[in-house]
Amino acid sequence: MIKIYENFLPKQFEDEILNLHTSEELPWFFLKNTVNFDTSSIVNKNAKNNFQLYHTFFLKEPYSKFYDYMIKILNFIEIKYKNIHRVKSNLNTNLAHYMKDNFQIPHTDSDNDNFYSLLYYVNDSDGDTLFFEGDTITNRVVPKKGKAVLFKSNILHCASNPIKYDYRIVTNFVFEV
After folding, report:
1. Is the distance from CB of 169 to CB of 89 less than 8 angstroms?
2. How many domains does the chain contain in total?
3. What is the residue range of 169's domain?
4. How far apart, in whole angstroms, are the C-alpha atoms of residue 156 and residue 141?
5. pLDDT digits (tens, 9 = 90+) for 92-116
6. DSSP secondary structure code for residue 40 in this structure
7. Burial of 111 (0-12, 13-18, 19+ CB in 10 A)
8. Best label site of 63, 143, 149, 171, fewest CB within 10 Å?
9. N-terminal to C-terminal alpha carbon distance within the chain
């Protein structure tokens, strides 16, 4: 189950979220790799475990002074959740030698069947989100400012770095229903 939401936020709120993410107010932190598990068993030559910047809004508890602001996104979709597990934004950049067929390491956000993920695209970009069954790409979502995609957190997925754009920003909400 993959559900796409388009134009569900007021335009002014979309702009405010973009402005927050591209201002000096929001601190970004460096991660050497997009996933933190051993990737030696991944044999797909297109999978790249690149660096990314991130900002955590919630992890077991509010982690950022902007948490209350960002959680409003879930209210516009009217998602009924029991618990928030994590809310964080990822910023991926255009990388030298990154090709159209490359993508980050496929992963799940949770193995729990009661958990869902919502990806909110902060800006227009390339760098699609890919969904997999085994090694096969079954779906792809193009990042567009104000778009969101909802799916079970145990679905294998990954991002791609942008090639035409300078950066791609997505906020990932993981929650229990």
Report:
1. yes
2. 1
3. 2-176
4. 14
5. 999 988 999 999 999 999 999 999 9
6. T
7. exposed
8. 63
9. 15
* Cβ-contact 126, 150 below 8 angstroms: no
Distance from C-alpha of 62 to C-alpha of 159, rounded to nearest angstrom: 25
159: number of Cβ within 10 Å: 25
- Residue partners of 86: CB distance under 8 A and separation at least 6: 56, 58, 59, 109, 172, 173, 174
Is the CB of residue 101 less than 8 Å from the CB of residue 163?
no
Cβ–Cβ < 8 Å for 5, 150: yes
Strand order in the sheet with 157-158: 136-141, 129-133, 157-158
Tokens 């077991």 sit at which residue?
Answer: 60
Report the distance separating Cα 41 and Cα 68, nearest Å.
39
Residue 56 token pair: 């955590």
Which pTM was predicted? 0.94
**pLDDT tens profile 150-174:** 999 999 999 999 999 999 999 999 9
Say which CATH number the domain at 18 has.
2.60.120.620
Give 169's strand partners. 91
